[in-house]
Every structure is written in structure tokens, then in C-alpha cells.
Design a protein that fits this description.
The longest helix is centred in the N-terminal third of the chain and has 29 residues. The chain is mostly helical and 338 residues long. It contains 16 helices and no strands.
């Protein structure tokens, strides 16, 4: 994690100092695995540190990410207003990342039993044996439907979250025929409403079961998204978009917490599967783009109405899930799954 943080910071500095496309491309390429080592393993550490509050901790993690998504454009505005450029913005990010890295150095790692983590014992031959042990752990996880299910549902759910955001401005201008400033406002509304939804989720999960929240949000999204596509006028679209963005906010943190809960004590395996699922999910924008090229963007986005249905079906799939609190398989008596 600490080594990944160093590479993370150096990649930001490389972007800021890049004087050619090759250097810029290399810096962004290195940034991806460095982010996985620094950020994703930090998430795993939090899941191991609070196994009895995984959904609540993931909600706070997602709130931090949404705060960063909103703060990023504001940071760039501030840098530009002060007379700086995009390079200065990346230098500021490198400085902030350095502060986060130093804070990580001050944290005591949460111990995980070697057997539970899938690590080799003290008599293992070495790194090669450790690799094969972890590979077998990943293969074993892939045979567990409760684990695979949450990885797949998260990929599908992202179509109505990040993928929709990527096509939103284009849809509003080219299909809904709204002015570009309105489309820009819609992006701001989506980010702000998502942040509000993440903040609300922190309080909601202290009062309601995570699966109840997830299912309710899927039902609401199944009604809101078609309404967003069909309703005329910019005001109505912006209002529905805001509610939809807040409604889908619980999806990622709850699904990710369930993925970790299905692999108790094996957070590195969860990180591996989550990263692989994210790579597979990168085909989502490509699929939507190809469909838009063949049938038009309105039809391509209309197909996404099946996403909330798929999320709801995923939560109702047969088989028992591990309790996200880490207390064992299934949910405690009296929970919504019972």
C-alpha cells in the first residue's frame, strides 16, 4: 500500500511535468496500478478493520469519493482563477496525495490471520508458493456464486451510474436538444445530488438493513429512469435526474460491502475480483457507444432501463449471502433477508 502510494504521487508529478504525449501516456498508465495498490488496498484495510460495520464504512468511503468528484472541478477553477494551469492543479493533487500517504504511515495495519487471508504459512517455500496459494484462493472465490454475483451486479449497476454520466451531456444536447449550458448544469446537478445521496446513506444505514435500502433504490430507479428519458422540458429532466442520482448512490457501497462480506478475512481476493470486474466493466461505454452508432443514442440509453431490474434480480438471486457485519453466513434473525 505504501509503495503504491509513492508511485501514485510520482505519477501525478510526472503528469504535471510531462512535455510529450509519450510521457503523459506512460504517467497515466502507471497511475492505474498505483491507484489500485494505494487506494483499493486502503479500502480493503478498512473492511478488515471494521468487519461488523462494512456497509456503514463503505458508505463513508463512497461519500469521500463523491466529495472528491465535486471538489476536483472546484480545485481546477480555483487554480485557474489564481493564474495557474492544469499542471499546477496536478502539483496540488500530488501535494494532497503526499499528505494522505503520510497519514497512512501513521496508521497501524489491521492484522489478518494468514490462513484466512489466503497467505502461505511460515513453512511456505517463498514468493512463488504465495502466488499459487493466492491464485487458488481467487479460483475458489470464482466458484462461489454469492461472491461472483456481487461482482457481476456491480458491473451492471455501473451502467446507470458512471456510464450514464459519461453520455449524459451528449444525450441532453443531441437527443433532448437542450442548450450546452443546461447540459453542463445537469452534470453539476448529477454530481451534487450523488453527493447528497451518499451523505444521506451514512445515516440511513444506521437505521435500515443494507439489502432493504438496495432493493428500495432499485425499485425507485426502475421508475425514475424511464421518466427521465420520456419527460419533456429541461426543468422536469433536471429534477428527475437529481432524484435518480441520489437514488442510485447506495448501489456501489452496498454491493462492495457485500462482496467483501462474501470473502471474510480474504480482502486481497475481493480487491482482485473487484479490479477484474472494473476492467470488464470498461466494455460498458464501448457497448453503449456501438449501439448508439448503430441505432442512435436515444435507443442505446433506453436499453439501460433493464439495469435496475437486473440489480433487483441480483439481490433476490438464490443462495445465502454472508452477513456484511462479518458475523457469519446469512443475515441475523429479524433482518430483511430472513
Amino acid at each position: 500500500m505504501l509503495s503504491g502510494g509513492i508511485v501514485f504521487i510520482l505519477s501525478l508529478l510526472a503528469v504535471a511535468g510531462a512535455r510529450s504525449f509519450i510521457v503523459l501516456l506512460a504517467a497515466f498508465t502507471v497511475f492505474f496500478p498505483a491507484s489500485g495498490a494505494f487506494v483499493s488496498l486502503t479500502q480493503a484495510e478498512l473492511m478488515d478493520a471494521w468487519p461488523d460495520r462494512r456497509p456503514q464504512v463503505m458508505a463513508r468511503w463512497d461519500l469521500a469519493g463523491s466529495t472528491g468528484a465535486v471538489a476536483g472541478p472546484l480545485l481546477l477553477i480555483a487554480v485557474l482563477a489564481a493564474g495557474g494551469g492544469w499542471r499546477v492543479a496536478y502539483l496540488v493533487l500530488a501535494a494532497l496525495a503526499s499528505g494522505a500517504w503520510l497519514g497512512t504511515c501513521l496508521c497501524e495495519p489491521h492484522p489478518v490471520p494468514a490462513a484466512a487471508a489466503g497467505a502461505p504459512g511460515p513453512d511456505a517455500p517463498g514468493a512463488d508458493a504465495a502466488f499459487w496459494v493466492r491464485l487458488r484462493a481467487v479460483r475458489g472465490a470464482l466458484r462461489d456464486w454469492s461472491t461472483v454475483r456481487w461482482a457481476l451486479v456491480a458491473v451492471v449497476a455501473d451502467l446507470l451510474v458512471d456510464v450514464l454520466t459519461g453520455f449524459l451531456a451528449l444525450y441532453l444536447v443531441d437527443v433532448a436538444h437542450l442548450a450546452p449550458p443546461i447540459a453542463a448544469l445537469a452534470i453539476a446537478v448529477r454530481l451534487g445530488a450523488g453527493l447528497a445521496g451518499d451523505a444521506a446513506l451514512v445515516f440511513v444505514l444506521d437505521r435500515m438493513a443494507d439489502m432493504t435500502v438496495l432493493r428500495a433504490s432499485a425499485v425507485a430507479a426502475a421508475l425514475l429512469y424511464p421518466g427521465f428519458l420520456l419527460v419533456p422540458g429541461p426543468a422536469a429532466k433536471l429534477v428527475i435526474l437529481a432524484v435518480l442520482s441520489a437514488t442510485t448512490a447506495p448501489w456501489y457501497p452496498i454491493m462492495q460491502a457485500r462482496l467483501y462480506a462474501s470473502l471474510p478475512g480474504r480482502s486481497p481476493v475481493a480487491v482482485t475480483l473487484s479490479s477484474a470486474a472494473a476492467l470488464a466493466g470498461g466494455l460498458g461505454p464501448l457497448a453503449v457507444g456501438l449501439m448508439a452508432g448503430a441505432f442512435g443514442l436515444s435507443w442505446a440509453l433506453a436499453v439501460l432501463v433493464v439495469v435496475p431490474v437486473a440489480v433487483l434480480a441480483g439481490t433476490a438471486a438464490p443462495g445465502r449471502d454472508a452477513d456484511p457485519s462479518g458475523s457469519g453466513p446469512g443475515d441475523p434473525p429479524g433482518s430483511d433477508d430472513e
